[in-house]
Amino acid sequence: MFQLVVGTNNAKKLIELRLLLPQDRVKLLALAEIEGSIDVDETGATFAENAALKATEQAKHLGQWVLAEDSGLTVDALGSEPGVHSARYAGTHGDDEANNDKLLAAMKDVPDDRRTAHFNSYLCLSDPQGNVRLEANSRCTGRIAHTRQGTAGFGYDPLFIIREYHRTFGDLDLTVKRAISHRSRALRQFVPEFLRLIEAIDQ
Q: pLDDT of 42-66, one tens digit each?
C-alpha cells in the first residue's frame, strides 16, 4: 500500500481529504502521526506557491511522499482578500470566529450583487526528494451572507452561500459539501492522475 503524508494539522480538512482519497490503495498519515514533522512557513504570494512550499519542504524533511493543500476565500469586492491570509485574516491563525467577524464588518455596506466570492483549493504532491510530481486546483463560486448561517463545516463556511442551494456551506450536509466543494473538485482532478502515478511507481 502506498504511504502518503497529508501535510496539514487541520483536523477537519484531514477528515474531508480522507473521505475523498482512495484509502484501499493509499495509507494516509496526518502530520500529527509523524514524529519530527515541521511547521512550514507559508510565505508564498499565491495559493499555488504555498501548497508547493508545504509539500516540498515537508517531503524533503521527512523523506516521504507528501500531499499538501492551500486553500482560502477570495472576495471580489475586497480585491480578492482575504486570499492567502484567509486562516489568519483577523490576526490569529485559525480563529474562525474572529475571521468571520472581520469579514462581516468589511462587507457591511456591500450590496448583494457585489458580494460574490470564491473558495479556492490548490493541491501539490511532492516526492521524498522535494520534487513536485502533481498539482491540481479548483474553486467554488458563491456569495457572502450578511449573517452566519449554520454550524457545520469550518472557516468561512457559515458565511459562504452556494448559488445552487441558496444556503451556506455551514447549513449544508457534509455529503453535499463533499460533492460540490472547491476541495472535492480539485481532488477529483488529482485522484486519477495520482493513481496512475503510483501504479507506474509500483511496476
A: 999 999 999 999 999 999 999 999 9
61 known member of a binding site: no
Active-site pick, 24, 39, 70, 95: 70
> Which residues pair with residue 162 across a beta bridge?
142, 167
Residue ranges of the alpha helices (H) in 36-181?
Answer: 47-62, 96-106, 174-180
Q: Cα 190 from chain centroid? A: 13
Q: Is 9 annotated as a binding residue?
A: yes
Could you tell me the domains of the chain?
A: 2-202 (3.90.950.10)
Report how far residue 33's alpha carbon sits from residue 114's, in angstroms, rounded to the nearest whole number. 43
Is 95 an active-site residue? Answer: no
Are the C-beta atoms of residues 67 and 42 closer than 8 Å to each other? no
pTM score, whole prediction: 0.92
181 CB neighbour count, 10 Å cutoff: 26
Calpha distance 90→154 (Å, rounded): 15
